[in-house]
Amino acid sequence: MRLTLCSLMFVFACATSAVAEENIKLTMGKERVIVRGIRPEEQLWGPYQFPRPFKLGDRLVVSVHVKNDDISNYGAKALWFESRDQGQTWNEVDASIAQECGLLLPNGDRVYLPPESGIDVSDYKMTPWNKYTPDYDFSKQAEEGTLPIPDGMTFWMGGTTINAYNADRLPPSLSQQAWTLFRIPARQTKPVLEHAQVDWPYLTRVVHVSRSGKKVLKSIFPRGNPKLGPDGAIWVSVFSGEGHLNPVNGQYSPYYSAEIFRSEDNGRTFKRRAHLEYEADGHAFPYKSGGFSDSDFEFMPDGSIVWFLRSTWYSSTGKEWDPMYMTRSTDGGHTWSKPVKFDKVGILPRLCKLDNGVTLLCYARPGTFVRAALNNSGTKWTEPLVVMTPNDRSALANKPVADPTFHDWDGSCNNPEIIPLDKNSALIFYSDFYYPDKNGVKRKTILCREITVER
Question: How far does the signal peptide extend, from start to end residue (predicted)?
């Protein structure tokens, strides 16, 4: 097997780095308001949620989702805010700033992978199930305006049917394997629209069919935050649709699968580096789950990679919390250890590495938590710093209800993000549905808070 210089350096780092455990203390700063939105009784879930922060030189910017939480709205126009005083105060800015928020590459380019909304395919004809005969050809591409018989199906509570298709079988207009990408070339200011080609074996596209008959093809943009790896490549985490074809055997699974992709040509093409199936055997992992979906990874000082995985999916199980899992790779992401339970909860795990060498992890639901790696391998972590309590918060509402639903109880979207602030601190971003305005009225509010590392 041919080893490149990067491969040899990776192996050497794994073999020689110390993994001694440190004493680390985490402390929290004061809550800082980014934006106050609607009262929670107007609409508890959807608008004024899902903050997504970026660091742009001397300023911080963050987007805030203000539409319904629906696959048709992933790419909807968000509100954007900036801070020029390290997150102390925030002001609204034009949404065009989004394209400046890409990852800065070694060649000076900046690339941004925007969220994309699903495509309404209600006008496409569905092939009747009675056409499914023993000799039905699952390798044939469908004609324009037609959806073939699905490779598999699953269902969500509320009556949504989810049909899964090998992307190669969809009509040409729907079969492209690409991500939208905006590039600001080095020493320029105007973004250029591109479509990065994605090498995704057995890419599975899903169509959500509502009770009303509306059909939406879910987008495939990467939900993770792109990062530069020690090899100079762009790395990003992704997950499949609601149900997918296992690339090992081509068989349908009703679960999500987690993926990591890399680009060695500055974002023009991406190739899959890692794929994780959720084991539906009822033993190692709970069977009643959506699978491995939202995830994040980080490159550790000893040369390994840690990868944290969400398993909760309410629409599949009726349960808003389930364990978060962790896996590690010591060979540059080619192979991974069997995922093990890291904590009993874990929505949207997010990691960041500070310049002092400490890696931080945030996750949530119910509650919001931050932990720090205690060693260079990421195999030991501090006890959770509680940013938001996991206990019942429904009494904080403007109009407390006697019998709270889960999100009344929780009072947050629990989709946190974290980014480095300086050498020894980071900013965590999260929502609080019960944060008071100057008149004491509780509003859905996006907050940030400084997390300081003491060694």
Answer: 1-20
Total domains in the chain come to 1
pLDDT tens per residue across span 88-106: 999 999 999 999 999 999 9
Strand partners, 363: 369
In the predicted structure, residue 15 carries a pLDDT above the cut 60: no
Q: What is the pLDDT of residue 284?
A: 64
Residue 360 sits in a domain of what CATH number? Answer: 2.120.10.10
DSSP 220: -
pLDDT of residue 253: 93
Residue pair 252/287 in contact (Cβ under 8 Å)? The answer is no
- As a whole number of angstroms, the distance between CA 309 and CA 321 comes to 13
Range of the domain at 270: 5-454
Lowest-pLDDT range, 9-18, 139-148, 340-349, 397-406?
9-18
Distances (CA, A) of 377 to 12, 138, 154, 309, 395: 14, 45, 38, 17, 42
3 state DSSP class of 252? strand
What pLDDT is recorded for position 1?
Answer: 34
Give the contacts of 78 (CB within 8 A, at least 6 positions apart): 63, 64, 65, 66, 95, 98
How far is the C-alpha of 295 from the C-alpha of 297, rounded, in Å? 7
Burial class (CB in 10 A: 0-12, 13-18, 19+), 167: middle
Q: What sign does the CA torsion over 9, 10, 11, 14 have?
A: positive
- What is residue 334's predicted lDDT score, i.e. its pLDDT? 97
Q: With H, G, I as helix, E, B as strand and everything else as coil, classify residue 5.
A: helix
